[in-house]
């Protein structure tokens, strides 16, 4: 957990994708992070937001696959998607203009 906190503290001087790569490595190698649910959720949200910006705002198409996976990871971590049918219904509801389905 300390490694992740240290990494997040020095993120300002790093390229954003390098920072994310390092964060993912820390998450994969330090199982203790999962025990701190708030820190883990914050890390997942940071991964999602940064990749979203890189793909949608900066137009970096090389990161599209990583962004798609981050969307799925975020949904799983925040328990917003339980099964395929629920996900499809949520998409349908969202596309119908009924607000934030997920």
Summarize the structure in short:
Helix content is 68%, strand content 0%. The protein has 102 residues and is an all-alpha fold.
Q: Which stretches are low in confidence, meaning pLDDT under 50 for 5 or more residues running?
A: none
Number of H- or I-type helical stretches:
5
Beta strands, count:
0
Write down the secondary-structure element order: HHHHH
Structural class: mainly alpha
Shape: flat
Helical content (DSSP H or I, runs of 4+): 55-70%
Strand content: under 5%
Gyration radius, rounded: 15 Å
First-residue to last-residue Cα separation: 29 Å
Main beta sheet: strand number and arrangement?
Answer: none
Please, what is the average pLDDT?
A: 81
Written overview of the protein:
With 102 residues, the protein is mainly alpha-helical. It is 68% helix and 0% strand. The protein contains 5 helices and no strands. It has helices spanning 2-9, 16-29, 37-57, 64-77, 84-95. The longest helix has 21 residues, at 37-57. The two termini are 29 Å apart. The mean pLDDT is 81.
Keywords:
102 residues; 0% strand; mainly alpha
């Amino acid at each position: 957990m300390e490694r992740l906190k240290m990494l997040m503290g020095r993120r300002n001087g790093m390229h954003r994708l390098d920072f994310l790569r390092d964060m993912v490595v820390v998450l994969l190698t330090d199982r203790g992070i999962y025990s701190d649910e708030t820190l883990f959720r914050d890390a997942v949200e940071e991964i999602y937001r940064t990749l979203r910006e890189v793909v949608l705002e900066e137009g970096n198409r090389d990161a599209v696959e990583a962004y798609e996976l981050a969307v799925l990871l975020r949904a799983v971590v925040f328990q917003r998607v339980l099964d395929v049918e629920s996900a499809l219904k949520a998409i349908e509801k969202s596309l119908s203009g009924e607000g934030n389905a997920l």
